[in-house]
Amino acid sequence: MSHIAVERNRRRQMNEHLQVLRSLTPCFYIKRGDQASIIGGVIEFIKELHQVLNSLESKKRRLSLSPSPAPSPKVPLQLLNTPPSECNSLIRNIASSTENVKELGASCNSVAANVEAKISGSNVILKTVSRRIPGQIVKIINVLETHFFEVLHLNISSMEDTVLYSFVIKIGLECQLSVEELAAEVQKSFGSDKV
Predict the structure, then answer these.
(1) Is the Cβ–Cβ distance between 147 and 177 less than 8 Å?
(2) Which residues contact 112 (CB under 8 A, 6 or more apart)?
(3) What average pLDDT values come out for the chain (195 residues) when binned by 10 residues?
(4) From CA 96, how far away is CA 114, in angstroms rounded?
């Protein structure tokens, strides 16, 4: 009789722990409600978190070894080159009644993803919409860091198998990309297999 009670208690604890794991994991990692799917989704989520953590730790090491840069300037208009042929560029100037504000943006869409980059002051707002691809966030961060952008804020929203990554990124002094080129470079990351 006590063996049955012990087994019942063990199963109850296992189900409670699985429910906690499921609640802590974004829903698009878990395809079904069975135990194997929950554990598999949690493992995938933890692997992606480890990749992001490793990327951030390497960035922190690089920053601690290099002298701190001066504040980033606004991207000058002369950096806007002819947009890559695969991008649909949107460049617009908006005049405000109190001051002349220039808002520059570009979008680069493909079957794999829609990428939009927009300059806001000395920062860039970058948004991507695609199906969920394991490790994609790390690829995007690598592209940004390679081109001297610093991620200030990241928001991840998902619905079923679609994910929206919204970045606020700081433009580094060494950055030589236009917003069109940035959108194109991020778009290329959706086709690469390197993490």
Answers:
(1) yes
(2) 130, 187, 190, 191
(3) 90 92 81 87 86 79 64 38 36 32 70 87 86 89 87 86 89 79 89 60
(4) 29
- Token digits of residue 178: 């236009």
91 contact partners, CB below 8 Å, separation of at least 6: 80, 104, 105, 106
Packed helices 2-24 and 35-65: angle between N→C axes, nearest 10 degrees: 50
| pLDDT number for residue 66 | 62
User: Helix 179-189 to helix 136-146 angle, to the nearest 10 degrees?
Assistant: 140
SS3 label, residue 155: strand
How many residues does the structure list for the chain? 195
Cα(31)–Cα(25) distance, rounded to whole angstroms?
A: 12
What burial letters (b/e) apply to 104-120, b meaning 16+ CB within 10 Å? Answer: bbbbbeeebbbbbbbbe
In whole angstroms, what is the distance from residue 94 CA to residue 104 CA? 9
Other Cβ atoms closer than 10 A to 81: 11
Closest CA to 181 of 81, 92, 103: 81
What's the 3-state SS for 97-133?
A: CCCEEEEEEEEEECCCEEEEEEEECCEEEEEEEEECC
